[in-house]
Amino acid sequence: MANRVLIREGQLPLLVVAPHGNQDDDQNTDIIADVIASEMNAYYVINIGWRRAAEAVLGEGIANLNNIKHCQLIPCKQEFLDQIIEFKNNILTKSKRAHILYVHGMSNAVRRKTNDNVDIVIGYGQGQPPSYSCNLYYKTAFVVRMQEEKFNVYQGKAGGRFSGWKHDNLNQFFRRYQQDDRVQSVQIEIVNALRYNIEESINTAKRLARALDNLLHMETGFRKGFTIKEY
Fold first, then answer.
1. DSSP string over 45-90
2. Under a CB-based contact definition with an 8 Å cutoff, are residues 192 and 110 in contact?
3. What mean pLDDT comes out for the span 65-89?
4. Using one digit for the tens of pLDDT, what is the confidence trace for 103-115?
5. Torsion over CA: 60, 61, 66, 71 (sign)
């Protein structure tokens, strides 16, 4: 089926990916990814057609495109994974680093469980042992940039759902499958309260775009002793 995955070339060394952009899955993450990339003139790969499930049923358009094993199935590979690889390679012909942001959604239940107004959980490969998808300075700098935009950001803890650590998690592709240390990738889980309608999703995306722009330019540092809560 045509147009299950939307792609766009950009100018900045940033690729924004929405693996679960189908509206039955992570609602409005397709909009958030689109707006971030448009604001920044970045690349994007956005799944809007494949529906998430534990087991792939390719003839019915069902596959979890955050699961590398599903991504390697035909036609998921040509439609989705190959586009990510191609754009990463394009970026690295012009830049020393390729930055990849995987955009996901989580429910508001995280706020009840933490007794805190959590906005975003960032995953970067914390685990036992860790498999970091970016260097730790980069992760912390991104958290600082998001906090400057008034996001309340947690980081995914070892063993947690949002750590971005599991072997088949798409965030691990350029560490465990096609190792390329020039890639700095993270995943972010955005609470439903920040994407429940189009207006809120656009506002969230514009704030994230400003944070990412400051991250890529690394305009300022961050204070020593900075700590990030975990979930």
1. EEE-SPBP-SS-BGGGTB--TTBHHHHTSTTHIIIIIHHHHHHHHH
2. no
3. 98
4. 999 999 999 999 9
5. positive
